Amino acid sequence: MKIIAPLSAALLALGIVLTAHAQNPDAIKGELKKRFPDAPVDSVRKTSYPNLYEVIGGGEVFYTDEKATFLIVGGSLIDTKTRENVTEARQRQLTAVKFDSLPLDQAFKIVRGNGSRRMAMFSDPNCGYCKRFERDLVTVNDVTVYMFMYPILSPESGEKSKSVWCSADRGKAWLDLMLKDTAPVAAPSCETPIDKNLAFGREKRIQGTPTIFFEDGERIPGAMSKDQLEKRLAEAKIASAKTAK
């Protein structure tokens, strides 16, 4: 379940009514901060649409006009010409994380084929969507998957994650658990990076599983179809290669 951000909660509680007379992004930002002092307002910028400004607060995207007479909270802005979900695309930009800045030493690798395409996944062993996604992922070739144990659903998830990490072959233990429902038998004592993963997830607002990061930094919350995954892996590989030049 998605948690409403502080700014969203504040706006909903106050009826989402503004009567400011702001004339530019800085003035709009100042007015919002004055009216919602306890809510984060990180930035305001003009969009390409007439008299519509984007507001970023607490990692969420909102919209207002040049006088801050209203705020649009929730929902999506759709471009009728391109049919692009503008809000979703912007949210992906905001939540992107440079791939090499991920704490990859806190994950284990599953390599298929030549492993030339990279992705990272934060996953809970009790997550049904994760198990379904693994069934598609196992058929994808030439990919390296960095698997982060991210047990957020239950205490049992934590125990299973520890057992996987402490197994002699972590990749096999994980796949046996997710695809065959076979629990691993692990050493009783083993240091794991799970607490660090959970701390990193809180910092980066990873609120559900699976959460997928691609080589170009884009984050996708939730499972994907195999076709969607293949498309994103290819796009991310090209984008990453261009950035490296």
Mean pLDDT: 87
Quantity of strands, as a count: 9
Helical content band? 25-40%
Largest sheet: 5 strands, mixed
Low-confidence segments, given as residue ranges, are 11-22
Number of contiguous helices: 8
| Strand order, largest beta sheet | 5-7-6-8-9
Defining key terms:
37% helix, 245 residues, alpha+beta, 17% strand, 4-stranded antiparallel sheet, 8 helices
Describe it:
- With 245 residues, the chain is α+β, with helices and mostly antiparallel strands.
- It has 2 domains: 6-95, no CATH class; 99-244, Glutaredoxin (3-Layer(aba) Sandwich), CATH 3.40.30.10.
- It is 37% helix and 17% strand.
- The chain contains 8 helices and 9 strands.
- The chain has helices at residues 6-13, 25-35, 86-95, 128-137, 155-165, 170-180, 194-203, 226-244; strands at 43-46, 53-57, 60-64, 71-72, 108-112, 117-123, 143-149, 211-214, 219-221.
- The strands form 2 sheets. Strands 5-7-6-8-9 form a 5-stranded mixed sheet. The protein has a 4-stranded antiparallel sheet with strand order 1-2-3-4, with helices on both faces.
- A hairpin with a 4-residue loop joins strand 8 and strand 9 (219-221).
- The longest helix is centred in the C-terminal third of the chain and has 19 residues, at 226-244.
- 31% of the residues are buried.
- The model is unreliable at 11-22 (pLDDT under 50).
Could you outline the blueprint of secondary structure elements for this entry?
Layout: H1 6-13, H2 25-35, E1 43-46, E2 53-57, E3 60-64, E4 71-72, H3 86-95, E5 108-112, E6 117-123, H4 128-137, E7 143-149, H5 155-165, H6 170-180, H7 194-203, E8 211-214, E9 219-221, H8 226-244
Parallel strand pairs: 6-7
Antiparallel strand pairs: 1-2, 2-3, 3-4, 5-7, 6-8, 8-9
